[in-house]
What does this fold into?
Amino acid sequence: MAPATRVPAVEGWFTTGDDGAAPALLGSRCTGCGTFAFPAEATYCRNPDCTSSSFETVELSRRGRIWSYTDARYQPPPPYRAADPYVPFCLAAVELAAERLVVMGQVVGGVTVDDLAVGDEVELVVDTLYSEDGCDYLVWKWRPLGATAPGGEA
Amino acid sequence: MPDDKKVAVLGAGMHEWGKWGRPFVEYGLAAARDALADAGLGWRDMQFVSGADTIRNGYPGFVSGATFAQALGWTGARVASVYAACASGAVAIANARAQILAGLCDVALVVGADTTPKGFFAPVGGDRKDDPDWLRFHLMGATNPTYFALYARRRMDRFGATEEDFAQVKVKNARHGLANPYARYRKEVTVDEVLSSPMVADPLRLLEICATSDGGAALVLSSLEFARRHAGGGAPLVTIDAVSTVTPTFPNTVIEMPNFSTDSAAASTGAPGAAAAGFRPSIATAAYAEAGIGPEDVSLAEVYDLSSALELDWYEDIGLCGEGEAEKLLRDGATSLGGRVPVNPSGGLSCFGEAIPAQAIAQVCECVWQLRGSATGHQVERATVAVTANQGLFGHGSSVLLSR
It folds into this structure.
């Protein structure tokens, strides 16, 4: 069977790492005031004191610290495409120090809330969100750093 | 408190909360007729109708103001409808108040009602890849309880809150709602029952997350002069003294539904500390400032307990205690009926579930009855000042201050 085609589940929000470079979230940086945004802003800067409409696309920090976390014990409704049978997963809100913002994301499979703590360091990986019609649809996830931390593909 | 910011609440009315799936108009109409009867006024006396629109999948649903006006029978009354998610009711109140304070009308009817689907709030169907609310479900499976749980976990980590604290909020509110004829759930629960209900989004359990409900609430508001002319009955006159409908201040550094990220504080040029307190604390602060009073003046509060843990955040956000002190306030019984400043004497969302456009109006109805001394079975003794607080999707603050 041919390997599944890897397709980002959303266009332009992250790099997949398929070119050999480490995957990263793609945000914007206002060229006027330096404010970051994720997902990227293209039309306005959120800073009320800045009227710039010029932005550069930047890779956000690949590592951050957990601001808070939880899990999803019940299958979320569509448009979430859950595996059958449903497997609960964790979510984390992660603080990126350089950008001074918090970004959410799922935590890689095999991690439970008992493995997580506020302040823990995590790293961005790209992993399969769901598979359909020979395609693996990809999304960013957070992977706890630490010797015993479970996988996901880096 | 300056009189030029006050409007009188002549009538308050509600339709019981539940889950029947009938048209929202029915609930709003019943609430409106109750409010009119309570005010001793007729529908033809209403010069302005202010509606809080229904919500469908996070976005505006049905037009409310004109729908209720038609259901009551066209009289030529002026009308407005507003959508501000969970804050819609407060914005509808703010609009009616502004009309009255501007002298454009003397007396107005405010109505909000909804009927809601079962289960998690889900986003609009189809592919909506430019809609953050659709995308958060699609890309992360992040439901509303996901966000409530992030806040709850953070309280545990920062302030040592326990699962038992959260359960105690539910136990308290269940007790408060027992005698409330408008509450959907009127049943005592124990800490053990809460802690043995299924985990939904760790650390929050099924009994700690507010349900979605059908319901309707309405108010008749007027100028103080109209109220004096109209004065009847023995009940003390209750006034709305401030309404806060603030938006956040950049950079908003707390993750909020339905967003993927917070604002970035990397280039913040705002005054130092201006945004440090965050959006939620700014909501009631603006209401206090408008009325020229402070949290120490408050006799009771109705806050948006979307989760048990979120009620604790509100204690701090509306100034009942300092940061990290909410668990102590709860454990000391200060926020229970009979305590120093009862919170959610109505039973809160815990006993009502959320009928979104009606909810902020229902909070005000409860405060009106408390301040009149007519909240039979769940009355806060000697209540003189009440505050409501809630927050709507997309950056909508909502806080109403009332006094007698």
Notes: The first strand of chain A starts at residue 5 and ends at 8. The two ends of chain A are 24 Å apart (CA to CA). The mean pLDDT of chain A is 93.
